[in-house]
């Protein structure tokens, strides 16, 4: 009989489950200082969930399986058909999740999108093992009954609150002023990468660190710690430098995982270099707050250059007597370029898969706005994240224009407008036929519905010129290159 104890540990994503109660559930209840406070408070409002049982947790494959959350449409529970969260009003109107195509093609391997493909586990040494998983941010747990062996769980958080505030201040002093994550990241309980513009992405998740010990062939969970983590990447469309921030707060711990040490190292891949790589690592008692900055510079600066960069953080958790458990979380891909023209030319960086919106006003571009509204109402794309337009080359733009407006009547003060825009890949070069509407002065072209083809209409010449100038500024300011998605919205 093997009388030697064996210990295991894991760090993993929290999967959620049934609600639990009990003396060993330890969650931060007091307010914490720093920018993670709101995120921590949000986590506490969620229903607690049961921990993964020790038996199931032994298999790395079972510990963290891919979930439907990586799908843009399914990535946000209760979301709309374009992947946005269901919400009242327009609060979430400009927030969307990273599409699968973006995760696959950026450098450095697929972005984990906070839906990793397996648990990262340490080797078993002297019967001890640890693993690390990443899970949605909604779950907090108590340890299972079978795991209640080892040191006592930390007691109430009241005594921890002040020290957490001091640690948060200390981290800020050493690292610098770290901006708060956007509201749509803090208020989200889903582990997908989100973007609210072409210059800001964020992800929020829970890292679950679990320890096991094997004695006489019996595996017993001996500890667990949950870390609420926020990865925040604001970039700059007119600058090729940006910073990837990481926030980590201890929201639950018990047993051998109490006070385990957390460290993280930033890792870039692709056409970028590191300016700064610092993380305020250390022990993680209940309520501890740690923060990090990975400063990056895009290297695609020559005129016409285009480069891609993906950053990430490798997080490592170590408890006394156990080998470290680590996992790398990669962010979404960032594209930097000096290919958008302008005078003077300059490099800048964006999130290329995010479909920014250009707006046409019923006041400033009255006749164009009315035409776009009719065209989109007939089924043509461009108004939503799931059916955006994509920018075309100059050659395609010219051909789209010729096919749409070659027989337009010549009227003083009027000009031919086509939708989808000639500068999009959804023009007539992509197929389909023309349609028009009453009052558009194309009496020989019938009305129609459906997602392909174009609508043509004679509009006020000044409105059309205004729309053309607006598109030039929009493409430049948002660094929209050929093939990039964008939306067209009509506003009052």
Automatic annotation (TrEMBL):
Residues 1-22, 75-119, 135-170 are annotated as: Disordered. Residues 407-488 form the Deoxyribonuclease NucA/NucB domain. InterPro entries: DNase_NucA_NucB, TAT_signal. Residues 135-149 have a biased composition (Low complexity). Signal peptide: none annotated. This is Deoxyribonuclease NucA/NucB domain-containing protein. The lineage of its organism: Bacteria, Bacillati, Actinomycetota, Actinomycetes, Micromonosporales.
């Amino acid at each position: 009989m093997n009388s030697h104890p064996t210990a295991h540990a894991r760090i993993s994503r929290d999967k959620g489950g049934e609600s639990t109660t009990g003396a060993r559930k330890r969650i931060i209840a007091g307010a914490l200082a720093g920018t993670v406070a709101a995120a921590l408070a949000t986590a506490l409002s969620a229903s607690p969930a049961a921990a993964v049982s020790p038996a199931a947790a032994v298999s790395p494959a079972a510990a963290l399986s891919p979930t439907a959350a990586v799908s843009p449409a399914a990535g946000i529970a209760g979301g709309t058909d374009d992947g946005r969260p269901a919400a009242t009003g327009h609060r979430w109107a400009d927030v969307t999740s990273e599409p699968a195509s973006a995760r696959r093609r950026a450098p450095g391997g697929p972005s984990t999108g906070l839906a990793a493909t397996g648990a990262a586990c340490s080797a078993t040494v002297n019967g001890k093992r640890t693993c690390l998983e990443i899970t949605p941010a909604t779950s907090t747990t108590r340890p299972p009954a079978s795991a209640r062996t080892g040191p006592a769980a930390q007691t109430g958080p009241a005594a921890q609150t002040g020290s957490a505030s001091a640690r948060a201040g200390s981290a800020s002093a050493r690292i610098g002023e770290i901006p708060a994550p956007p509201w749509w990241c803090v208020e989200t309980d889903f582990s997908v990468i989100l973007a609210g513009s072409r210059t800001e992405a964020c992800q929020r998740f829970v890292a679950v660190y679990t320890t096991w010990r094997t004695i006489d062939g019996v595996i017993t969970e001996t500890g667990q710690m949950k870390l609420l983590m926020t990865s925040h990447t604001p970039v700059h469309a007119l600058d090729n430098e940006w910073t990837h921030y990481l926030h980590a707060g201890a929201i639950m711990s018990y047993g051998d995982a109490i006070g385990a040490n957390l460290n993280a190292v930033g890792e870039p891949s692709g056409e970028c270099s590191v300016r700064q790589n610092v993380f305020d690592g250390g022990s993680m008692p209940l309520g501890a707050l740690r923060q990090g900055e990975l400063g990056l510079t895009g290297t695609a600066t020559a005129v016409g250059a285009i480069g891609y960069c993906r950053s990430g953080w490798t997080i490592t958790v170590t408890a006394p007597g156990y080998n470290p458990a680590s996992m790398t979380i990669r962010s979404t891909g960032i594209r930097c370029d000096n290919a958008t023209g302008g005078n003077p030319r300059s490099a800048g960086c964006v999130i290329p898969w995010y479909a920014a919106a250009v707006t046409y006003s019923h006041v400033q571009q009255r006749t164009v706005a009315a035409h776009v509204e009719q065209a989109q109402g007939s089924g043509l794309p461009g108004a939503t994240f799931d059916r955006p337009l994509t920018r075309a080359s100059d050659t395609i733009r010219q051909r789209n224009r010729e096919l749409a407006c070659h027989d337009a009547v010549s009227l003083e003060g009027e000009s031919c407008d086509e939708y989808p825009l000639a500068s999009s890949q959804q023009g007539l070069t992509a197929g389909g036929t023309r349609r028009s509407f009453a009052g558009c002065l194309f009496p020989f072209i019938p009305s129609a519905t459906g997602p392909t083809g174009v609508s043509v209409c004679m509009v006020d010449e000044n409105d059309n010129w205004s729309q053309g100038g607006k598109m030039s500024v929009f493409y430049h300011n948002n660094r929209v290159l050929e093939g990039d998605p964008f939306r067209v919205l009509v506003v009052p």
